[in-house]
């Protein structure tokens, strides 16, 4: 029986997921494989990446790299393209955070977050896009945040700054790379239950506050990201580029 929504399939396509060892990346690695893609699970934590690839099975492999390391990222993307002949989809998802007020944030913490969330996002997109350009096109989906669009709910300046950069890098790449048939979009989740946010989501009073601020009345889960990202990564969104898709339970609609 034919798939009821063929445009949402990735059969035979090659996808790379950064930050694929946990959280949103892990959820999407499984989703891409379920949609028929071969998945490269890339993470700085090799054991986590390998575990996710093993969970998926023969449709997946893992790679270890720090996204802020230009040589490492160029090498990984080159290896993927050489092995599989192309790169069709990049889920540009790896990110870190250092929560602090502007007065108390150290320059070391600022630089650490910028290195991954901004520079790393650039390096991964550029490296993958070179192979997409040479292969006739592709799709890039970046992980932004509603904190890159709004003023935020608590002091988190470096995360807000870098996710704001992701928003505008997405728009810039969408225009720059459109002639190569490379579509670039982003998802912008609200507070989401992942290992990175555990310090917040483990506090019942904090969770209650965020839920009260969300019209749908709950926090975002990794599973809530799979449909939006899959849409942007497939032919289902063939005329969509430069779009920032909030996945926020209505927060930004207020």
Automatic annotation (TrEMBL):
Belongs to the short-chain dehydrogenases/reductases (SDR) family. The keyword Oxidoreductase applies. PANTHER family: 3-OXOACYL-[ACYL-CARRIER-PROTEIN] REDUCTASE FABG, SHORT-CHAIN DEHYDROGENASES/REDUCTASES FAMILY MEMBER. It is an enzyme of class 1 (oxidoreductase). Keywords: Oxidoreductase. SUPFAM superfamilies: NAD(P)-binding Rossmann-fold domains. It comes from the Bacteria. Its EC number is 1.1.1.100. The keyword Oxidoreductase applies. CDD domains: SDR_c. This is 3-oxoacyl-[acyl-carrier protein] reductase. One of its GO terms (molecular function) is 3-oxoacyl-[acyl-carrier-protein] reductase (NADPH) activity. The lineage of its organism: Bacteria, Pseudomonadati, Pseudomonadota, Betaproteobacteria, Burkholderiales.
